[in-house]
Amino acid sequence: MENSKPERLMPERLNFGRHFHSTMGFPLKRYRDWKAGNPESKNLFDYRVVMGFFLPPWQREAVWTERQKIAFIESSWLGVNLGTFSYNFGGIGSPFDNLLIDGQQRMSAIQDYIEDRFPVFGYRYSEVTEIDRRFWEMGCIFGHFQTDSEDEAYLRQYYNMLNFGGTPHKESERA
User: Fold this and answer.
1) Which distant-in-sequence residues (6+ apart) come within 8 Å of 94 by Cβ?
2) pTM of this prediction?
3) Cα separation, 139 vs 132, whole angstroms
4) Nearest by Cα to 87 from 161, 155, 160, 154
């Protein structure tokens, strides 16, 4: 009798799209394109916008405090791993095109910083030197995932998996 054990018992990996090893320059370019009013950045569905990405209506509001935003930007200047952000690239005119699936809080921090809403290490973004800006934009690693989907249920599942799996730390658990 032949042993008919299945090859795999565990489920297939989820498809979170293609990973790109990018820098801070990528979201900054998206922001500049959006500010310049480039046609591919038109907000056809009246979504909330952050850094030129559209926020799906089922995503929560921005919740980070100014202190959290400053801490994130400080980390970026210091070279701390920033994690990733994820967005969807849908068809032209699709309500799913250019949706930011994960990273709203981080993107909001970046946008507020480059719009001079708060200083970091004593300087607003407009006050740092051109050399510093170039170093930050091109030397700060901020990878991203791009998925290509027209399936809202899949995009909602993706968002939920990335945002509802952890347990927030308590202040008493700080190292």
Assistant:
1) 150
2) 0.89
3) 10
4) 155
